Each structure stands twice: as structure tokens, then as C-alpha cells.
């Protein structure tokens, strides 16, 4: 009898995990072009912080609203080639961003990139799950580290290619979209073969947690609150940390991009560590440590000098990033029959909170100062205390469901 739980006899399909991680790297690199280019757009179009936040909001809402819908649809109708279709939207958005002559066209371009992201993530997360052969947190972290690495590389590539030359040079990033299409084609063939094999085999039995609907819904609600605290804080870094370091320490645009890179590359490393520790020690404890454990360092960040800022932002990135693979896999274990919907919901909510956070913080920064928002956001990780109320999935009994 087959089940969703690992038998421990099979290894992950490493070739597919690496491929989907590379695809995630390229997808998220293209997404991260948007916040990385903010200083150039702000200077060229004389944007306020509120307008910068609105760019993020439009992109993140486009990336978030469709993800649960796409995930729920593909739960019943798997679409191996859907990621290739989504990448076409991303490619069009990047090309339009390179030529955007005004603020309104910038908004249209980032919405196209957001739609591409909403199509990419649910099915890609399912591919990582299928290739895990039971090592779910590890597989999800490998998938996630690709995205985080792409996000980290974008500021450096923007500083190297675009900032010295101008907005039109964003067009070079279309090449990454073409490369992503090739990788996604390889993954789609493997996915299609898996579906053909599954259609010829007997129906699998899935093991679901023996928990009441109230406990499952309560746990999902707690996880979403933790996503809120994590991504609201992360939005303050990805959208405004360049402006913060430029304002507080007098850095130029390129130097500010390097400080943002410190955070983003530490996020990539922390994601991988979170997946490894989640499989070994239990996802609940990794979630608890990741969100709440960042609090002492976020609270200290607004009060330190430039050198300590660089150190603290790395520590914060390492700790706070380790939560997402554990949160997503924990949610998938709560609702194993709805993998696409769960993945879409959590990726979508994460993107949505990032967008709302950027818009709210932009308005707040205009009304106060860019440094003030880091004093306020430093308290967000304290919300992580509620992870105490999550059930320990390692001790939960399971029941078979066809």
C-alpha cells in the first residue's frame, strides 16, 4: 500500500530537485529585478516611498491572488507545462519594464511579472514534493534556496549591468527567462512521465493526520499569522533597506545594493539549513526558533553602526529564512490531499503580505522617516511566540484515506 509518508527506502530525485531549484533561481532573479531597480526608478521618475510601495503591492498582489486558484485547479488537473506558460508572462513583464516610459507602465510591467510568478510556484512546489521521496523539508529547502539565491543575485547584477548604463539594460535579463524555459521543459517531461505512470497504477492511499477540523484550521491560521510577521518584516528589508543604508550611513546606490545582498544571500543559506533541521528535529521547533529567534537581532538593528548593521542583517537573514520550508511542509502534512492549493495559498499569502507591507511601510516612511519604520518593524518577530500552540506533527497519529 502506498502512502504519502516516506518509507525511507528511496532517495530524492536529485536531478529534478536541482533542476527545479535552478528554475526557481531564474524565476525569482527576474522577480527581484523589480525591488533592485527601485533606486534607479526613484531617481528617474522622482517617485515617493508610497509610489515605490505601490509598485511592490501591484506586483505582489498579482503574484498572490492567483496562486491558490492555480494550485486548487492543478490539484485536480495537473499541468506539467504550465510553468513554461507562466514564464512567458514574466518575460513580457521584464521586457516592458526595460522600456517603461512612465510610472503607469511600470505598474503594468510588474503585474505581468507577478502573474508569471503565480503560475510558476504551485506546480513547481508540487514537483519538489514529488521528487522528495519523503525528505520533504529537505526537498522544499533545495527548491527554496534556488529562489533565494536568485533574489540575492539580482541586486548585484542590477548594480553591474543596469545602474551604470540605464533602465534599457534591464532587457538583458530576458536571457535568463529564455534559459528558464529550457530548464522547465526538461522538468515538464519528467513530470509528464510521472503522471503517465501514476495513471496506469492503482490509486494511492494517502495518510492524513488524525486531527479534528478545528485543530487543522487553527494550525493553518497560526502558520498564516507567522507568515504575516515574517514577510512584513522581510518587506521592510527588500523594498527599503537600500534607502535606509543610504540615508543613515551615506552609502551610494552600489554600496547599498551590497548590503541588501548580504541579507539576501544569508536568506538563501538559512533556507537550506531550515529544511535540513526541519527533517531532523521537527518542523514545529524550527518554525518557533526561526520567527521568534530573530527578535533580539531585529530589535538591536536600528541602534547599531554601519559595520554591526552588516553583521546583524546576516544573522537576521539566516534565522528568519529557515522558517518557510518548515511552514510550507507542515501545512502540506496537515492537508496532504490539497498540495497545490496549500502551496498556492502559502506562497500567495507570503507574496501578498510582502506587497501590503511594502505599501504600508512606504506611506509610513513618507509620513515619518525611513529609519523610523525599522524601529517599528523590529517588534514583528515577537509574534513567533504563537508557534508554541502548533501540534507536534511527529507525535500525531495518521489514518489512511483513498
TrEMBL record:
Gene3D superfamilies recorded: MFS general substrate transporter like domains
Positions of transmembrane segments: 12-37, 49-69, 81-99, 105-121, 142-163, 169-191, 212-234, 254-278, 285-304, 310-332, 344-365, 371-390
One MF annotation (Gene Ontology) recorded for this entry: transmembrane transporter activity
Cellular component aspect of the GO annotation: plasma membrane
Pfam family, one: MFS_1
Domain Major facilitator superfamily (MFS) profile: 16-396
Alphabetic keyword roster: Membrane, Transmembrane, Transmembrane helix
Domain of life of the source: Bacteria
Protein's recorded name: MFS transporter
